[in-house]
Design a protein that fits this description.
binds zinc ion; mainly beta; 0% helix
Length: 109
């Protein structure tokens, strides 16, 4: 598990994406550089009671749409009570994005 999630930032227009695209969806550029983002804001959340292929006894899981500092959106497993606009700390584990509630003020990083 590592802090933050990796982004691909287009060197031509500065747009950032997760996961890495083949070409920049914004300008078509192919030249990018790695970047990292550590926090975001909850936009929407939902509860998944039954997942395809998962055992029926598995407890419900929360998923959230998280808005990143550059305006991109990612879907993350949410740990904690969902609150629209709530700050979350992001990390990646096994190819999944995990979001944990974070208290505090100031801009997201
Ligand atoms: Zn671009």
């Amino acid at each position: 598990m590592s802090a933050g999630i990796p982004l691909w930032r287009c060197r031509n227009c500065g747009s950032a994406f997760y996961p890495e695209p083949l070409l920049c969806p914004h300008c078509g550029g192919a030249d990018g550089e790695p970047a990292r983002v550590y926090e975001g804001l909850i936009e929407q959340a939902t509860v998944v009671h039954r997942a395809v292929g998962a055992p029926a006894e598995r407890p419900p899981r929360q998923l959230a749409t998280v808005v990143l500092p550059g305006g991109q959106r990612v879907i993350a497993a949410l740990d904690g009570r969902p609150e629209r606009g709530g700050r979350v700390v992001l990390r990646e584990s096994g190819g999944a994005i995990l979001a944990s509630r974070r208290r505090g003020v100031g801009p997201i990083e």
